[in-house]
Design a protein that fits this description.
10-stranded mixed sheet; 12 strands; leucine--tRNA ligase; globular; alpha+beta; two-stranded antiparallel sheet; Isoleucyl-tRNA Synthetase, domain 2; binds ligand A2H; 7 helices
């Protein structure tokens, strides 16, 4: 962990009804997977959410009608942040594992894909953010390669009970142009660096740094409400828009 606190945006990805049996007790409420991101301006290009299959999650009540699914650690952190409406000891309505979440259909703010699904990624950390990540394969090397793994390996899909229709129809959606890398920066950098799978952790860390930096300094939005604006300008504008819509929460750790 760094010395400085990381300021995340939590994206409220709404779980579409009817809920599976494991989530049955939540029926009648609005339930969201809470995904922590540093790149709110990329949300137009979401293709899925990532969860850790063996990770432990909980469904926590934040208002009379709204429930967030995230790690208990994140629920506690959120409770201590003043802008949170979570009571100080957040009550867990049901304990869940990542496997329980795989295949949930989601509606996520700003996403051009109207419905996306929760899918497994082995590199999700449960001691960072909320343990839930939204996937933008155009601009995140981790997301690009994990989606590529699932698409190209039927055995990996079978192992986690992932249906073809949750993965195969979802292609990269360009969101940002970076002069050096084009409109699909994550794919280009993964190819240039010959990254083969989500297990290439060292190379992926380097790819992530490179695209993150270049995207911020040289990137231009090519879609959405701020098309034509620089990424640096668009980032806070998109963040504010999401917060004002009530579809995002600020979170730091
Ligand atoms: B970012 P930092 Cl398009 N485990 O969001 C693994 N990864 C996690 C995580 C967890 N528990 N929680 C958050 N993340 C990811 C978008 C994105 C992100 C893009 C490009 C780069 C990027 C879409 N995924 O991150 O270690 C989330 O992915 C590169 C920095 O706190 C979050 O932002 O610096 C980022 O890692 C936070 O990483």
């Amino acid at each position: 962990e760094g010395v400085q606190p990381q300021e995340y945006t939590l994206i409220k990805m709404e779980v579409l009804s009817p809920f599976p049996p494991k989530l049955g007790v939540l029926e009648g409420r609005r339930v969201f997977l809470a995904a922590a991101t540093l790149r709110p301006e990329t949300m137009y290009g979401q293709t899925n959410a990532w969860v850790l299959p063996d990770g432990k999650y909980g469904a926590f009540e934040i208002t009379d009608t709204e429930v967030l699914i995230l790690t208990q650690r994140a629920a506690l952190n959120l409770a201590y942040q003043s802008y949170s409406r979570i009571p100080e000891k957040p009550s867990c309505l049901v304990e869940l594992t990542g496997s329980d979440l795989i295949g949930l259909p989601l509606r996520s703010p700003l996403s051009f894909n109207e419905i996306i699904y929760a899918l497994p990624m082995m590199t999700v950390l449960t001691d960072k953010g909320t343990g839930i990540v939204t996937s933008v394969p155009s601009d995140s090397p981790d997301d690009y390669i994990a989606l590529h793994d699932l698409k190209s390996k039927p055995g990996l899909r079978a192992k986690h009970g992932v249906k073809d229709e949750w993965v195969l129809p979802f292609d990269i959606i360009p969101v940002i142009n970076i002069p050096e890398f084009g409109d699909r920066a994550a794919e280009k950098v993964c190819m240039d660096m010959k990254i083969k799978s989500q297990n290439d952790k060292e190379k992926l860390a380097e790819a992530k740094k490179l695209t993150y930096l270049k995207g911020f300094t040289d990137g231009t939005m090519i879609v959405g409400d701020f098309a034509g604006r620089r990424v640096q300008e668009a980032k806070p504008l998109v963040r504010t828009k999401l917060l004002e819509m009530g579809l995002a929460i600020t979170y730091s750790e």
